[in-house]
Amino acid sequence: MTITITAFERSPDGGKGLARDTRVRWALEEVGQAYEVRLVSFRALKEPAHRALHPFGQIPTYEEDGLALFETGAIVLHLAEHHAGLLPADAHARARAIAWMFAALNTVEPPILELATAKVLEGDKPWSQERLPLVKERARNRLEELAARLGDADWLDGAFSAGDLMMVSVLLRLRPSGLLDEFPSLAAYVARGEARPAYQRAFAAQLAVNTRKPSGG
Ligand SMILES: N[C@@H](CCC(=O)N[C@@H](CS)C(=O)NCC(=O)O)C(=O)O
User: Fold this and answer.
1) How much is the pTM?
2) From ligand 1's centre to the CA of 168, what distance in Å?
3) pLDDT at 217 (0 to 100)
4) 78 vs 120, more confident
5) Which of 82, 99, 151, 157 is deepest in the core (most CB within 10 A)?
């Protein structure tokens, strides 16, 4: 059984690991599954062959033994359900870990993405300087709530789980904004995630793609 994921041929972040294939690579490394990567250009993303795998023309996708998936939440959950290492055995703890995955994607990631959009895509609009503080405050409020729940624990609910993998992945996207540094416990939580050998391998693999020399002449 070969697992194949897709990733950007050239990630816009130049290898900082913020493209979402990194979280799938990380999950694959945590559960010890080998995988192959098919690199996709921005043009190919929007062509029918790729859209057959991903209706929104994005990365990452996941293919395995006749199964094709898109959405990192679905992919990481699939891996966590089929391999040991990312979900606890206890049924309640397992359900709570899945709840944290949804919280990462559905409650914490939106204000973080909104902040990136406000800065990068809307920064040149005449209303941008008025809107930015509001967007920043919404992200900050969410982080305060998350930091309050995490307290001084290492992970969100007992042992490291797919919930932490997703939350750390989402929080990493905040780093360029500097907001993470306002919350030392969250910055330390993210650092703990990054220190995991599985994350290190995933990061190195995406970095190798994004720093390779262009082939051909
Ligand atoms: N909710 C999706 C988001 C996927 C997504 O936004 N992928 C980005 C890369 S990180 C992408 O392909 N952007 C290119 C585009 O939308 O054209 C997931 O979690 O998989």
Assistant:
1) 0.96
2) 17
3) 45
4) 78
5) 157
Read off the pLDDT of residues 49-60 as tens digits, 9 standing for 90 and up: 999 999 999 999
Q: Which residue has the tokens 């990733």?
A: 7
Ligand 1, pocket residues at CB < 6 Å: 19-20, 45, 57-59, 71-72
- Checking if the pLDDT of 104 tops 70, the result is yes
Provide DSSP, the chain.
--EEEEEESS-TTSSSS-STHHHHHHHHHHTT---EEEEE-HHHHTSHHHHTT-TTS-S-EEEETTEEEESHHHHHHHHHHHSTTSS-SSHHHHHHHHHHHHIIIIIIHHHHHHHHIIIIISTTSTTHHHHHHHHHHHHHHHHHHHHHHHTT-SSSSSS--HHHHHHHHHHHTTGGGTGGGG-HHHHHHHHHHHHSHHHHHHHHHHHHHHTSPPP--
Q: Respond yes or no on whether the N-terminal peptide bond of residue 55 is cis (omega within 30° of 0).
A: no
> How does the average pLDDT of the chain come out, rounded?
96
